[in-house]
Amino acid sequence: MFIPLHDANALKYIKVQYVTISLIVINVVVWLVTGLASTQEFNDAAVVGLGYIPAVVFDFADLEPSLVLVPEDATYITYAFLHGDFMHLASNMIFLWVFGDNVEDALGHVRFLIFYLACAAAGALVHGLVQMNSEAPLIGASGAISGVVAAYFLLHPKVRVWVLVFFRIPLPLPAVIPLAFWIAQQFYMLVVDGDSGVSWGAHVGGILAGAILVLIMRRRGVPLFDRTIVTPKAVKHVEASPVVTEETASRPSVPPTHWGR
Questions:
Q1: Mind listing the pLDDT tens digit for each residue in 8-45?
Q2: Under a CB-based contact definition with an 8 Å cutoff, are residues 55 and 147 in contact?
Q3: Could you tell me the CA-to-CA distances from 102 to 23, 109, 125, 135 in Å, in that order?
Q4: Whole-prediction pTM value?
Q5: Which of 8, 30, 93, 122 is most buried (CB neighbours < 10 A)?
């Protein structure tokens, strides 16, 4: 329904969103290696060996030893760095680019990386619980991105975000409008279309993880819902600057007053 283009939301704690940029670069490189620049056979091997397969993880099926690339538990993470095609990659990376920097700013570099990977794992888990017998590999960063969207929704619902509605109409909207609609859509689609080719379960798992984790992982003092950060003022040794007017400009200067004495 919409594509985020830009948000007017300056960074407050970090200078550069190193982790967000690195994740985008890694995802693009992996897609180039496994998709664009590889054979179909190589791509299929990567998807089966690195994708998250519920039936294998929950021991309903076994993967041939020759196809195993990483331990099955590692696929809770590795699946999130594979994408089916360019549009699949681009849509996820646009969301990460627009919303990831401010979530990284609120959490810090290291905690944001942990947050991102945890949301990816939660997305895979919920997908697996919904489709335990599925032998189709799950790939894509949507679970992790859903966690980022949920965190941004709780942190910055009032920020204006430029979105492209129906792929044609650019509009500046408060983040709460498109993000609330998007989040509600994921839950709705899980109920009415849970067995489709899109893993709504992974989206919902990422949303739930992101909403919970941002509450406990954000920096101390970072508010929710765009509340103003109030910095306490010192009560000792704070000098009050004298107010200069036309009347007092010609008078002798008065020593500054020290508060709290």
A1: 899 999 999 999 999 999 999 999 999 776 788 899 99
A2: no
A3: 15, 11, 26, 36
A4: 0.85
A5: 122
